[in-house]
């Protein structure tokens, strides 16, 4: 992890660098042919200094563009977070049906995406209703990341750089949250995209253990041309069971002049309202809670978040079986890998499986999975009589 002194020294050297110090190029570069132009001088950031007044004007223009774009998208507040093999097109569309106002794709590997037609066709699908859309890439090479981004910039509203993945695979591949140890590289990644793409660049990050380092970090991203920052309110060593730090997200929001999204501890709409109030963020993201309840942003909540005897809530007329059937119909329209479908079956029907483990065991043994089989399985679970409704708040006169 970068120390406070290392981070401060780097920022002193680079904070006034204008995000468009590279010559902006407007021609599209097909795969295998890179755009010509001046490369960012990695070894000497100070070579690109401009006058302070020019830098200030440039920053104001960047902030104005960032907000103009966000307003054009109608400032979405309820957002599906990026989830590996889980925030794919059918699931995004299901969440959108139930109130999600924007969504991220799963993380895409920039090198494979740039090189492989097969990978692109399997891992990235969208449709005209799938907007606003963030397409997220991981990577550590600015040129390769740019090649991948060229492929999607016409189909999305932000190209997002994954700077938050804490998993072992990210450590091995040197991407995600482990790039926090190499701030010059992060700056070059953001700057490369921001100065060459027509679509704005966003970054999803985690916190440094030190709030001071976190604030300097987000200012670095902003100065590099980032138009939106999504903050997961945990460090890369903290896991979901540890409460997200909303106060740190609040500090980030007050330190930058571009839109900020909050991520962490969003389980139902009361959490959404409280998070927006505490952090001042421009929107919230949810991940794991949506896997359990894709209708979360529609005001539905699972029984886990309704106290027994609480007369403020009532059956919302939607249960997990209905959500599963709706998801499967979307998968028939927008095909995805069976492994993804199976994961969502466990996510949405898991509580039913806990009560009826024999149905789960039969599902595990099934070698010829089909949509018809899962439809019948939902009917079989319903016929057992145990229901898991989703609840909504009563309308009180």
TrEMBL record:
Its cofactor is FMN. This is DUS-like FMN-binding domain-containing protein. Residues 80-298 form the DUS-like FMN-binding domain. Residues 46-55 have a biased composition (Low complexity). GO terms for molecular function: flavin adenine dinucleotide binding; tRNA dihydrouridine synthase activity. SUPFAM superfamilies: FMN-linked oxidoreductases (SSF51395). Residues 29-56 are annotated as: Disordered. It comes from the Eukaryota. PANTHER family: TRNA-DIHYDROURIDINE SYNTHASE, TRNA-DIHYDROURIDINE(16_17) SYNTHASE (NAD(P)(+)). Keywords: Flavoprotein, FMN, Oxidoreductase, tRNA processing. PROSITE patterns: UPF0034.
